[in-house]
Amino acid sequence: MIKNELKTCSELLAEYENRPASKQAKNIEFAGVGKRDVYNITAPFEDNGERVIAGRVEERDSEHAYVYFFVENDGVWLPRVDAPIFELQDPFVTRINGELILGGVEIFPHPTIQDALSWRTVFYKGSILSDLKQFATGPDGMKDLRLVQVADGRIGVFTRPQGEKGGRGKIGFQLIDSIEEFTHDLINQVPLLDEQFTEEEWGGANEIHLLSNGLLGVLGHIARFDEEGNRHYYSMAFVVNPQNGQYSDLQLIAKRSDFLPSESKRPDLQQVVFSGGLIRRADGLADLYVGISDASAQKVTIVDPFTQFEEEN
């Protein structure tokens, strides 16, 4: 499982073509938000006994988004009555010490560049959705900041700095003893996982799974620009041993052509698959929930990318 070599998107795609094909993708239908798009969703999770999806809701020509919580009714996902609404992008959820953790990306005017936006990751916690209260923020300019509780009770922190430390975006990982240690100083010092992305490509962690043997299964994305400046995002996965820091090679698990044709927010975003969440099944398969082309949401059934690592140990 030790990480062996750096591979580009093109090399990962070539490997992916030799794996079992994904099952038929399906659109996830949302209603009740007017003409706004719903995308970059979470996988369904349980809140107070009800199955819920969190999704990014926004106008097609805007970056000013809201996170809504949806429940299913006859195959259509509708806003949950009396659920909170957050002014955030790209929601994610986990549980730590029995509490629900919700995170998302908050945008704000860039402090030095006129008419530009900056961003930071914001975290809320509570026993149920209606109790959520903000408890932490990440450093300005950092997306894809994730938390997970490992088997011994400690907290795994996944980061994605950009710039001098992370280039276009690289993944960092570190264990902390408690959530109180989750500070800007700590986040900025988290070491990077070496040899995952070239300087021209980038990626991040989207959702973390605690596996049956204590390893951490990371659902993430890897991305690149093509010659015309279009963005290509792919779903990927790898595992980390939180006890010794070893990690596996990246593995592509879905690409845009695995999904149904759809509209896009902009032409350069047509090839974007944004990993949202993974529901692992007892039959060795998994349902992957994604945002498509920054305008809609779909799911597809794939071979569970983490089962092989549970079977090794």
Please give a structural write-up.
This protein is mainly β and 313 residues long. It has a single domain, classed as Glycosyl hydrolase domain, family 43 (Tachylectin-2, Chain A, 5 Propeller). It has 3 helices and 20 strands. The chain has helices spanning 9-16, 184-189, 307-312; strands spanning 26-27, 37-39, 45-47, 50-58, 66-73, 76-79, 89-96, 99-109, 117-126, 133-137, 146-149, 155-159, 172-176, 202-210, 216-225, 231-240, 251-254, 273-280, 285-292, 296-303. Strands 2, 3, 4, 5 and 6 form a 5-stranded antiparallel β-sheet that branches. It is globular and about 50 Å long. The chain starts with 8 loop residues before the first helix and ends with a helix. The model has no long low-confidence stretch (mean pLDDT 95).
Write a concise keyword list for the protein shown above:
globular, mainly beta, 313 residues, single chain, 6% helix, four-stranded antiparallel sheet, 20 strands, Tachylectin-2, Chain A
Tally the beta strands.
20
What is the fold named in CATH at topology level?
A: Tachylectin-2, Chain A
The CATH homologous superfamily is called Glycosyl hydrolase domain, family 43
Give the overall pLDDT as a whole number: 95
Count of discrete structural domains: 1
The proportion of residues forming helix, as a percent range, comes to under 10%
What portion of the residues fall into strands of 2 or more residues?
A: 35-45%
Structural class: mainly beta
Uncertain regions: pLDDT < 50 for 5+ in a row?
Answer: none
Look at the structure and give the CATH class: Mainly Beta
Topology as a string of helices (H) and strands (E): HEEEEEEEEEEEEEHEEEEEEEH
Shape: globular
Q: How would you classify the quaternary structure?
A: single chain
Largest sheet: 5 strands, antiparallel
Alpha-carbon distance between the two ends: 10 Å
CATH architecture label name: 5 Propeller
Overall radius of gyration: 18 Å
